[in-house]
């Protein structure tokens, strides 16, 4: 469980970190690119607004030129009689409020070359005064060129020009905590677009000028044109997205920003921050700004009069909410993806952890099984566990452990058997040796007595039996001595195949072999071995006779020879006889062990065989399946062909040869 939670934690931390970094980087990038984009747009918007504002000034100029071309202005100046100009009254905007007549003017004045008023179209009674205080008029008359600019005019001056404008000029001032400080409670100045057009005689003498004016207070032509051109009625969540404003100083005199009462926010004041930067220092402002009741990405630019004094500002702004929402949505999206990634990572890691732990448990069970001695244990193949390599390594380990264990067991059995047989052999040889001489004496004296005995002596039969049985004893003793005896010393390089063939020839025609099929598969390229052929013949005769006994005259005897991978000569003798009981198997090489009826077997055959093979530095193994047959396998070291001489001891000859 601990491993699993660590895996899950690891996965989660990795996804969490990646997700967090991706979110932060993503949000920062999007933030920056959105901000850049919006600021670029706002910059474009303010440039468009400036164009529209300049266009309004130019249009005023064209209007004056048009009037100049169509009206008898020269005569009126020359005769000081404006009577002929009464038709111009139709150009003056009537009504006290803004209405959508874009050609209408608020002021139209005719002056002579000295700036003296000849005719005020909107106020014909007021004339004769000199209006050189107006910088636009002054510049026009001095430079004899058309001029246009915004100017600030006091309420009184404006009233002189057109008495009906008073109500448009007066704007109640609305202060907010952020706004710049303003002393007045009502605005009593107007921002006026002024243009002056010079009037000449045909000879080029300056006669005077025609002066027009449009009061921007509560005139929404320019701001609404900007809004339509730039924002094209675009809305966001039911609200217009962009707005434009003209400020006189810091006061909104013309705007389409809407206040809480759904009215144009006329009279509201700009924030101190913006005021200081734009009006006081004359720099553009681009950035977030709180406008009336919401945050806008805003742009402010100063409005200059003809003498380059800053008299107000032009403003465009986009509702920040849209971009704020884009930002928020992106953030949520990123967070969502990250969380989803984490959930997926959690499940994957959980499942992965489970499968790993399941496999580890199986491995643990397997290890326990092996340590408790079950070396046969093999891991079941796991379905796409990803542990194949480990499984394979484990199974290989188990197999090689089993292999080694088997070999150890075999070696152990062989050693214990060898030791047991060696001590038995020693004892038997000792006993045989002790008995051999007395037996010789018994035989000698018995024979002497028999020779002297009359043929019809009643004891003669018994004496002959004594001699017969004593001879049998002598034979047994001889066999026992053979079992312990070192090969006679007649050791020479011989072919084991030849020894086997000779032994076979001795028995195969005997009656006991008549019903037995003999098969042999003797390897022709077998190296020689160092051995005593007569003693080895004895070994094979013993084994053949035992096999024939076990098959009870009917079956197959198979003899094969080959060179083993460990470079030893191997001989196998297999029969299809009754086999050896598992209980007897460990004892068959012991002297006197026999399962045959008394008088049938002495139980010495295999022990002598064992002794002879042992003396050849080889060994003999048996494998038997009761009811099916028995196989004896003899392993003998190869003769290496050193300076062996006939009669040399085999142990010298096989130095370095592998026996096992
Ligand atoms: P003996 O042949 O005199 O009994 P051995 O030492 O030759 O003595 O054999 C010992 C015992 O091993 C036999 O009595 C028999 O039970 C068993 N034995 C030997 N060879 C075979 C064989 N080929 N098939 C079955 N049993 C065998």
Catalogue the ligands: adenosine-5'-diphosphate
Please identify, by name, the CATH architecture of the largest domain.
2-Layer Sandwich
Number of helices: 14
| Helix percentage range | 40-55%
At the fourth level of CATH, the homologous superfamily of the largest domain is: PAS domain
Tally the structural domains.
3
Taking the alpha carbons of the first and last residues, their distance comes to 50 Å
Shape field: rod-shaped
Sheet of most strands: 5 strands, antiparallel
Mean pLDDT: 87
Membrane topology: Multi-pass membrane protein
Domain Histidine kinase: 430-640
GO molecular function: ATP binding; phosphorelay sensor kinase activity
Enzyme class: transferase
What's this model, at a glance?
Helix content is 46%, strand content 20%. It has 660 residues and is an alpha+beta fold.
Q: What does this protein structure show overall?
A:
The protein has 660 residues and is an alpha+beta fold. It has three domains: 27-323, Beta-Lactamase (2-Layer Sandwich); 385-485, Helix Hairpins; 490-659, Histidine kinase-like ATPase, C-terminal domain (Heat Shock Protein 90, 2-Layer Sandwich), CATH 3.30.565. The protein contains 14 helices and 21 strands. A five-stranded antiparallel sheet has the order 2-1-7-6-3, with helices on both faces. A five-stranded antiparallel sheet has the order 11-10-14-13-12. It has a five-stranded mixed sheet with strand order 16-18-19-21-20, covered by helices on one side. Strand 18 (555-563) and strand 19 form a beta hairpin. The two termini are 50 Å apart. The structure holds adenosine-5'-diphosphate. Adenosine-5'-diphosphate is lined by residues 542, 546-547, 550, 575, 577-580, 588, 593-596, 601-607, 630.
């Amino acid at each position: 469980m601990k491993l699993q939670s660590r895996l899950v934690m690891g996965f989660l931390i990795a996804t969490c970190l990646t997700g967090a970094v991706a979110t932060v980087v993503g949000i920062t990038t999007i933030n920056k690119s959105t901000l850049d984009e919006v600021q670029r747009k706002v910059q474009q918007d303010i440039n468009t607004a400036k164009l529209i504002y300049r266009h309004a000034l130019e249009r005023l100029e064209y209007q004056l030129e048009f009037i100049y071309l169509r009206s008898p202005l020269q005569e009126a100046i020359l005769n000081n009689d404006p009577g002929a100009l009464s038709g111009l009254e139709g150009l003056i905007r009537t009504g006290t409020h803004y209405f959508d007549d874009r050609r209408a003017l608020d002021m139209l004045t005719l002056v002579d070359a000295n700036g003296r008023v000849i005719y005020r179209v909107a106020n014909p009674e007021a004339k004769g005064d000199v209006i050189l205080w107006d910088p636009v008029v002054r510049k026009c008359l001095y430079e004899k060129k058309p001029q246009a600019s915004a100017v600030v005019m006091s309420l009184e001056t404006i009233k002189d020009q057109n008495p009906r404008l008073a109500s448009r000029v007066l704007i109640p001032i609305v202060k907010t905590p952020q706004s710049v400080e303003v002393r007045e409670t009502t605005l009593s100045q107007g921002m006026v677009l002024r243009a002056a057009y010079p009037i000449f005689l045909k000879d080029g003498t300056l006669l005077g000028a025609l002066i027009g004016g449009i009061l921007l207070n509560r005139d929404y032509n320019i701001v609404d044109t900007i809004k339509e051109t730039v924002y094209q009625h675009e809305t966001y969540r039911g609200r217009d997205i962009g707005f434009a404003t003209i400020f006189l100083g810091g006061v909104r005199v013309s705007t389409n920003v809407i206040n809480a009462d759904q009215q144009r926010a006329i009279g509201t004041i700009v924030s101190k921050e913006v005021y200081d930067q734009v009006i006081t220092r004359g720099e553009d402002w681009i950035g977030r700004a709180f406008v009336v009741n919401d945050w806008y990405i805003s742009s402010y630019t100063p409005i200059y009069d003809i003498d380059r004094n800053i008299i107000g500002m032009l403003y465009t702004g986009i509702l920040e909410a849209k971009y704020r929402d884009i930002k928020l949505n992106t953030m949520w999206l990123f967070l969502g993806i990250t969380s989803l990634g984490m959930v997926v990572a959690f499940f994957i890691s959980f499942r992965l952890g489970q499968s790993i732990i399941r496999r580890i448990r199986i491995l643990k069970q397997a290890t326990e099984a092996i340590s408790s001695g079950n070396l046969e244990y093999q891991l079941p193949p796991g379905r796409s566990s990803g542990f194949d390599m480990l499984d394979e390594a484990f199974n290989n380990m188990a197999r090689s452990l089993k292999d080694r264990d088997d070999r150890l067991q075999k070696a152990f059995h062989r050693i214990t058997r060898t030791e047991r047989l060696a001590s038995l052999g020693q004892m038997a040889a000792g006993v045989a040796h002790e008995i051999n001489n007395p037996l010789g004496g018994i035989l000698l004296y018995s024979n002497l007595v028999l020779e002297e005995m009359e043929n019809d002596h009643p004891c003669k039969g018994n004496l002959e039996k004594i001699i017969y049985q004593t001879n049998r004893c002598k034979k047994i003793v001889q066999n026992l001595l053979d079992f312990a005896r070192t090969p006679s010393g007649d050791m020479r390089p011989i072919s084991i195949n030849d020894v086997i063939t000779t032994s076979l020839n001795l028995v195969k025609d005997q009656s006991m072999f008549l019903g037995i099929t003999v098969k042999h598969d003797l390897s022709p390229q077998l190296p020689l071995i160092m051995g005593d052929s007569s003693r080895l013949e004895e070994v094979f005769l013993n084994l053949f006779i035992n096999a024939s006994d076990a098959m009870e005259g009917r079956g197959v005897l198979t003899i094969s020879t080959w060179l083993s991978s460990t470079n030893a000569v191997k001989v196998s003798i297999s029969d299809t006889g009754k086999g050896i009981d598992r209980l007897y198997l460990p004892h068959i090489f012991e002297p006197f062990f026999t399962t045959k009826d008394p008088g049938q077997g002495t139980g010495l055959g295999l022990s002598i065989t064992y002794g002879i093979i042992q003396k050849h530095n080889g060994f003999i193994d048996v494998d038997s399946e009761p009811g099916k047959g028995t196989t004896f396998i003899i392993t003998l070291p190869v003769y290496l062909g050193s300076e062996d001489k006939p009669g040399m001891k085999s142990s010298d000859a096989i130095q370095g040869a592998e026996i096992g």
